[in-house]
Amino acid sequence: MGAIAATWWWLGIPVNLPRAPIDPNDKVQCISYAPFRNNQTSLSPATQVSPEQIAEDLAQLAKISHCIRTYATDLGLDQIPGLAAKAGLKVIQGIFLDRDRKKNATQVETAIRLAREYPDTIIALVVGNEVLLRKEMAASDLAALIRSIKAQVAVPVTYAEVWEFWLSNRELSDAVDFVTIHILPYWENIPIRADLAAAHADEIRKQVAAAFPGKEIFIGEVGWPSEGRMRESALPSRTNQARVVAEVLDLARREHFRVNLFEAYDEGWKREIEGTVGGSWGLFDSEQRTLKYPAGVPISNFPYWKLQMSGGMALAILVFGAAWLTLHRKPREPMESTLVPWLAVGLSATTGGILFGVAAQRLVYESYGTGGWLVWGALLVAATASPVFGANALVSGRAPPSFAELLGPKGYHTESMLVTMHGLALMVTAVIATATALGLIFDPRFIDFPFAPLTMAAVPFAAIALLNPPAKGSRPLAEPMFAGIYLAAAIYTVLNEGPENWQSLWTCAAFILLAMTLWRARA
């Protein structure tokens, strides 16, 4: 219990930054804004955002920012400039471009109309956002379109793109009034740590400025995710997001350059295509629209750590209770006279007690849609059950359950409800771990690392396999196949993610424990 309490006290220690991310006495220059909430998504043409919803957001944003940046004019977003004028906000109006030329023409026509209708509100037009990155338009066609729009409006016109693409398409600078670059240290080809993010952004800004003398360099996107998977040493977290935002804003004040934060609100719909990290860049929560970092409130990655610690302690008590009941009802020689099984029970209980709160928090942030909640909820249930049933197995001397005991023919199938439940926990863990392992091999970019629930499940199973090995018999086919997938995924993932990604290393260690457990299975 002491280890659980000490660990959670350490995890819950808040961070006090020299400057609040959002200073109530000093508004930010500009912030990216998309109004989509709940089930709304820009991926559906049927989405239509109401003016009341937008007005509510803008009234909130007007308290922290002078300006908002938008990205399109459809789905009700054409209402934003008029409502922003009433809220006292300036607008950097975006024009969304892709391969659909007819849709592009409508976007352009609407943006030109809005620029003429709200000349005191719209301060610039952004013609396209990362079109070159997505390879949806040639640079020459884009430049021609920018020049055409410039001839029809009185406001400055620019194009927004990842900074590397500006350097490789320098001819675009002649078409724009100022250069808008995106600097997202987390997404760099070589990811940048949070503590180096602000300095990196400043270095890139100066590098681009040297390439385009005489042009203003506007940082159109800069930010950090609060949740999601690590990329090498770049760790999404609440404290890291707050730090990066605070340091970038402080740098912009000192160096006198314009910057737009990415972004105002978490966009939950992006998690469908970009994983947890895609929907976690906002300074406000998506559902409740609450500011993540109110001034004067210490920032913690685990703001509910006391509740999470209590949940972990309850699980540890349950694990020890299961072991005690097993010993009380069915004493065993000579294992009951040794400390080894009880040390294994203690390790399982402590591991589960520490990680239960981490796994539960990650379940909340990493589950998207009904399917996501079912999958990750099932894994958490299996991971929670594993040390409880494992305590019974360790103390009673029972071998790890096999798939054949659940799914095999008569003669293999177990009649014990306890073994059945334990086997179901192993099977659920194995299936979800396999899906994750294959994802990390074939499409890892947005795959989260389920290190907490996998470890909760793997440690008890590995301990049982080590202390209570199965009796001699034929080696089944299913378990070694799963073990082979885990081992391959562990090797590939370590090489692919690098040694600085502790989430990756931890997950791979859990894969190896599961592989060892399943490899020892006998029928």
Describe the structure.
- It is a single chain.
- The protein has 523 residues and is α/β, with parallel strands linked by helices.
- It has two domains: 17-278, TIM Barrel, CATH 3.20.20; 305-519, no CATH class.
- Helices cover 52% and strands 7% of the residues.
- The chain contains 17 helices and eight strands.
- Strands 1-2-3-4-5-6-7-8 form an eight-stranded parallel beta barrel, surrounded by five helices.
- Strand 1, helix 2 and strand 2 (67-69) form a beta-alpha-beta unit.
- Helix 11 (340-366) runs antiparallel to helix 15 and helix 16 runs antiparallel to helix 17 (502-519).
- The longest helix is centred in the C-terminal third of the chain and has 28 residues, at 369-396.
- It is elongated and about 85 Å long.
Measure the end-to-end span: 38 Å
The pLDDT mean sits at 93
The name of the CATH architecture of the largest domain is Alpha-Beta Barrel
CATH homologous superfamily annotation of the largest domain: Glycosidases
Instruction: Output the CATH class name of the largest domain.
Output: Alpha Beta
CATH topology grouping of the largest domain: TIM Barrel
Total individual domains: 2
Order of helices and strands: HEHEHEHEHEHEHEHEHHHHHHHHH
Shape: elongated
Q: How many helical elements?
A: 17
Q: Please identify the structural class as seen in this structure.
A: alpha/beta
* Strand arrangement, major sheet: 1-2-3-4-5-6-7-8
Task: Supply Rg.
Answer: 27 Å
The biggest beta sheet reads: 8 strands, parallel, barrel
Strand content: 5-15%
Number of strands: 8
* Unreliable residue runs: none
Helix content: 40-55%
